[in-house]
Amino acid sequence: MRPEKPTSFTAFASDMMSQSQNVVINDKKVSLFYDEKYFFDEALQIDLEDIETFAFREDCPILYLLDKKGTVHSYDIYRKSIQKNIFNVQLDNNINCIDMALSPTVLYVLDQNGLKAFSLITWQLLWKRDIADAHSMCVDEKEDIYISTTDSKDLLKFNSGGEQIETLTIEGIETPVSVTAHKTADEKSKLYILDTAKVTVYDEDESKEITISHEITSSSSIAINSKEALYIGSSLADEDGTLWWGAKGEPIINQLSTYGQAIKKILFDHKDTLFVLDTHGFISLVTVQKVYKNSGEIAHIFDSTYEGCDWHKMEVDYEIPDQKGSVTVSVGAVDIKGQLPTITIEFENKKDIYLHEITGRYLVVKITLQSDPQGEDSPLFEKIKVHFPKETYLKYLPEIYQEDVQSKELMQRYLSVFQTILEGIEEKIANSHLLIDPQTAPDSEFLNWLTLWLGLKREQNWSDAKWRELLTKAVYFFKRRGTREGLSELIELYTKITEEESKPIIIEPFQTWCNDGKQSLDLGKYTFCVIFKPKALKSEEELKTVKRIVKLWKPAHTEGKVAVLKERMLLGDLMFLGINTCLKKEEPFILGEAALSIDTRLADVEENAQIQSHTRLGIDTQIKY
Questions:
Q1: pTM to 2 decimals?
Q2: How would you class 527 by CB atoms within 10 Å of its CB: exposed for 0-12, middle for 13-18, buried for 19 or more?
């Protein structure tokens, strides 16, 4: 049935049908699919010679470097500064270092004699183990060490205390070249063993093996990024490059031709930046870049519910970043569902389209997204809106302008220019109330504008969704500003901590007084402290934002502090029974699992001197006259 007045339909990104595998459709936008490829970025300017190997922790931007003399240095990636000669691992004469790895507190060095463990705090040697013909090693998230040897197909597994706890025999391994550990998104630990002709993925939890076969000449090192893509370095430099890679579970067949040096070791950091050590002792950065597909198509069919519909116009909402790429809209109409239109009209990079002589019940719209030739960026499609039936400003003119068919069509198209402008203004006026609603304000610019209305300053670490929620509840929070409940709820809004046991705890001075008048927490008379349990805050930036929230929303006459509890109980540190401290029975000393000054103490079990025992003159024995 023909509608009595003009009607419009809107199709959003999530309503579109994909016509190829090269597009990605989500709830808000459609874009071209991209591959992540690595390109040589820069060589680190490190004033060192003969770097033998390197390692770093995933949560720390510090590279630890080991030269051929056995001296350890550190390099700050962000500050680009080096600290030389931290300590020496005491290599024997004519003994070369093979590999190095890190846990949160221990540095492991593998040389031709075996494995050594050094404390990252005191740099003292914790223990060492003799291992013949060691070749490569890695440390997993449980701080277990895996070592491959040249004369065996097995992997040696040690715990953090240096005790060999297992010998892993994995079928299919012939000559292990390199080994690395990786924690997947589902918190499972996997071992990747690089062989001369393949990579074996060993899933310890499920006792499952996956073999990815592809012959690679002179393979030397393996690394895994966060998406479980495998990268392999070769110790043989050639014009085709020395880095190969393959997506998760796919053969290693792609070559990275922008890096042409012989490779000794490769490692990924937590941001998926690849660090490459070549055989000349130089470390380079190989960064990931998005390479978009050349083109992709999406489509949608609008149903007017009646045959012979004379479609009026169409508005396409899309964005072409830096004008890199194009958007082509193809339009046609049919009266029979499922039939393809015989005549279509194409419009390139047009957002407002007048539909000339497009008639039929079903309007078939096909949109082609085209990236730039280098694949650096992709057009972003958001929505499409169609208007029907055709009704122009010609109806407001005398009938004489509608008598001739050709002049009528020309006049309609001419007036549609002004109609589009005026209708756009009318729509903005009709929807102006949406601009002052935090939930419907279109973008960050309007959110910042609304923020100024309330006398607040936009926090950059707040996402748009969280900031919208804050502005919506601003009256509620202003009424409770300076109160314990208001501050606690505001922190929970930002951190999104929903579990009751992980919510922040606010300690005021009157709560810290014990029965004997002593304070368990040093707080001034007008000071309070917001305490978080271990791992409640996700990052250092989140902690800084919480501190700013406390400073802004605390009572004016008070001082607010923020503290994050530690997982271990330490004397002299913050300890709260039932929060980060519990009472338990004394456990026996276990070598490799106890730490001095934390959960272990040294004591003399015998107080009295005994002949041939406990009789060290000047230490536990004195001569008295």
A1: 0.59
A2: middle
